[in-house]
User: Fold this.
Amino acid sequence: MLRIAVPNKGSLSDAARETLIEAGYRQRRDSKELVFVDPDNSVEFFYLRPRDIAIYVAKGTLDAGLTGRDLFLDAQVGDAAEELMALGFARSTFHFAAPSGAFTSVAELAGKRIATSYDGLLSDYLKSSAIDTNKIVHLDGAVESSVKLGVADAIADVVETGSTLKAAGMEIFGEPILRSEAILIGQTGKHPAGLDKLIQRLHGVLVAREYVMVDYDVPRAHMEAALKVTPGLESPTISPLADDDWVAVRSMAKKKDMNRIMDELYEMGAKAILASAIHAIRL
Ligand SMILES: Nc1ncnc2c1ncn2[C@@H]1O[C@H](COP(=O)(O)OP(=O)(O)OP(=O)(O)O)[C@@H](O)[C@H]1O
Ligand SMILES: O=P(O)(O)OC[C@H]1O[C@H](OP(=O)(O)OP(=O)(O)O)[C@H](O)[C@@H]1O
Ligand SMILES: [Mg+2]
Assistant:
């Protein structure tokens, strides 16, 4: 059985669960269950703190896991585990922040105290940019309060919308330390049975989320121009209609371009333009 780690709570867990279900795997029904077997797919799921998942995978106890890129790098497991694919949810950036106006550049952090929950990630960054800070103050959460409460001069933390920082009267400075999202990790260089299928299915889910199926009827005279707007992934399907002057076209298109494409097709004289959701894709 393939042994896969899944976040048990927090920002990653709901989306990880939905993604696995969309990929055709069964998931636990009760949030108290620690292990769940999906016999049809020969997979055993282990529900763990996302922060710990890299440790289990790097040790070889589990074959693969869903976690955050920032959490993976923070765990400092070296080459034992690797990122296999990005999953597109739980996006965030890891940033330095301080009370508004206190710092303008990262170089000013020399000799200062920085609070964070991601010590490994922060110390790697400081080493690589040769900044000699006073110390890293480890906190489990609510890092934004640390400066006001006098235990640090600046923070390094996860920023999603920025509203937590704003509410604390802080702002980011310097370049992002890391852009993070949920990822699938595996043991470096290992290909246990079932892993390729998991990757293919997850890939299918991500593509299905990103694309819509566009169908329309267009006068044969405008078909060439319409196909330029909907070139599809491989090649669009063209079907004859009862009226010889018209054809029906079916093509995949990026969801974010959907309305622009529909407008352009309409202006070219296309009719019955439909965009529908795709539930799963195997390319
Ligand atoms: N608004 C957010 N807050 C926290 N983590 C976020 C947010 N948006 C995305 N993430 C990502 O989710 C992962 C953190 O998940 P985790 O479950 O450890 O934290 P959490 O949701 O803050 O839970 P808790 O603090 O209760 O342990 C990281 O990869 C992080 O980049
Ligand atoms: O940019 P935002 O959308 O405001 O999100 C980022 C905030 O959310 C997380 O905190 P969380 O609520 O998990 O509390 P914690 O600090 O106790 O983990 C994170 O640590 C930031 O503080
Ligand atoms: Mg948190």
